[in-house]
Amino acid sequence: MSWLRALKETARSGLAVERRRLSPLIAARGALGLALVVGFSLALFGPAVAAASAFGAFQAAIATFQRSWRPRPTLALASGGSLAVSTFLGYLTGSHTVLFLALLLLWTFLSGLAWAVGPTVGIIASSNVAIMLVTITLPTSVAAAAGHAAMIFTGGLVQAALVVLLPVRPWGAQRDALADALAAEADYARRLRHDPVAPFDPVPLMNARSAAAVTVRQARRRPAELHGPRRLAERIRPVLASLADPAVGAPAEGPRRDRVRELLAAAAEVLDAAARAVRHGEPVRLPPGAVAALRTPDTGTILSGRSHRAALRLAALLDDVVEAADPRTGTSPDDPVPDDARSVGARALRLFRRAKLPGGGPAARTRPSLPRLVPVAVAKMRAELRPGSPVLRHAVRVSAVTAAGYLLGLVLPFGHGYWAPMASVMVMRPDFSQTYARSVARFGGTLVGVALASAVVQTAHPDTYLSAGLAVLCAFGMYLLMRTGYAVSQVCVAAYVVFLLGMEGSGITQTVRDRVLLTLLGGLLAMLAYAVYPAWETPRLRGRLADWLAASGRYATAVAARYADPSGAAGPDVREALLSARAARVAWHDAVGRAVHEPVRHRGLSHAAAEGAGHALAEFGRAAMLLEAHPPERDAVPLPAAAGLAEALREATERGARAVRERRVPEWDGLRETVAAWDTEVADPLLRKAARLLLDALDELSTTLTDA
């Protein structure tokens, strides 16, 4: 992609406005916290302290909107506390340019490395640097600096308290993640009716798994319906695939295929009903037609063999999903079960919970508390201190640009010179497309926001309290619309800052001119820095593809090894291998999404080749999943030939991954010989067909890379 086209695409992306579900009550709660903090500090301490405390409350509320599974009060406190520390250190060095510049370089570099921990931490750290640049201009002494820092933390404390005192849809993020996973399974079932080999995006399942990890305090209060359906959804996916696939189940056309389509449609309706129940905390309302389709005895007369067993297993798993997702039955193992949800599978699930879980409480994947997370975060940041790390390059870029913007702001004949580095640090991200899109969006949003705020000020001439009220109103608009697009949120942020600084009587004309010009300068510096010192994703695509191939190979190896050792005592863990393969797949697709907008040559893996390679590895994973859908019983007779297949898969995919990294076309001769012998040694048609599908997918990968 050329630079001109890349700039056009990123600009269009940055200015896009999306239709998203709004959360007016949560936005109103954040604005209420801001109003309480501003009003209190304005009445007791004056406009300067009010402005400082407002930034703390404003940023703490933004932190609660981030995509994180941690408790919202914890996010607000962490944001307020870290911002208070940042601003106090900035206050201590603000009057000494050299010392402050050194602190700015260090703090910005650390904020850049913080992206290694996750986007939530990265956003909070970047915002701390940006707000520090504004607030250090307010106090005049160390005592005043301490007071301002205390008020900033108070703002975060107030927002955390409001989250506790005024809960809005508790566990809403976790409910949405689990409901999205169930809805994704329902959509998958519908697509399988028309395309028996349709792909499945594992991201909703991965998000649900992340959301299921809770702290010890959360585990004691989590609704029971939030922990059962996720694992069941994981088990349903391979059953759906095996039921639909004509290679191992019903033929592509005929009465048996019609029955499979009917079962898939019924499964989709049941999963959608469970998703709605989880999302809203309501009882599950099952469509009568779907229940009748799943329970009709005609299935046994139409389907046979593995397709019949898959249909029975699907019905049992769906019963379990209904049991686990219904708040009437998921609260306690001893609660009565409604007739429409009662089944052998559901009762078995309740007995399992009662036997395995102490006191009948839900088992939980534990999430470390914030103090225990600190060494983990430090380790992740240290791991990025290596040549070629995109996060390290981002940290170097953002610290250099912020320092340069700060110095230019001092030299240029404008007031409010901190706006240039503030704009830079807020728009810069580790990848190209987000940095450029946010730069364009920030300038456009700033221009509109400042123009609107200027018109209001020049027309109404608001006093201190009216300016504070208008600032709170703009903050409410930002909280309400922040998920619809960065440009829209920046309109509200620009107006918010103008009104907030207007409480002190700052010259509005100078503020408008300086903010627009310096925001443009900060955005241009950010864009120029990425062009000079980039971290392109395109050259790393082969490495990402090799990682996915190796992880998929380990997954297929673990599944095949289970047939050689049905007890699983000495074999690799299938679940862990599957999770690693999913993570590698998501990393690959994220990398391709970033690379598609980069203005660089592909260097050996074109976009068409990347698409074909991704399809081939997705088929490889689907073939392994078909084997996983029909695992042997733990007391089954071991299949010695499966050990040879597992070893051949491991060696072939490891060699293939090395070949992909070295820009060679992988070969599968050893695996081909093993599969040929497998056909003669194994009588089970499913095992023979799955092995051939695995080899065919790898051959497709080699063909794609040959034509790259």
Report on the structure:
The structure is a single chain. By secondary structure, this protein is mainly alpha-helical. It has 3 domains: 3-169 and 372-532, no CATH class; 172-221 and 223-363, no CATH class; 538-706, Methane Monooxygenase Hydroxylase, Chain G, domain 1, CATH 1.20.58. It is 74% helix and 1% strand. The chain is built from 30 helices and 2 strands. It has a two-stranded parallel ribbon. Helix 11 (229-244) packs antiparallel against helix 15. It is globular.
Regarding quaternary structure, what we see is single chain
Which structural category fits the helices and strands? mainly alpha
Overall average pLDDT: 85
Radius of gyration: 29 Å
Main sheet characteristics:
2 strands, parallel
Unreliable stretches (pLDDT < 50, length at least 5) are 330-363
* Distance between the first and last residues' Cα: 17 Å
Please count the helical segments: 30
Strand residues, percent: under 5%
Overall number of domains? 3
The global form is globular
Key traits:
708 residues; mainly alpha; Methane Monooxygenase Hydroxylase, Chain G, domain 1; 3 domains; 30 helices; cell membrane; membrane; transmembrane
Please give a quick description of this structure.
It is built from 30 helices and two strands.
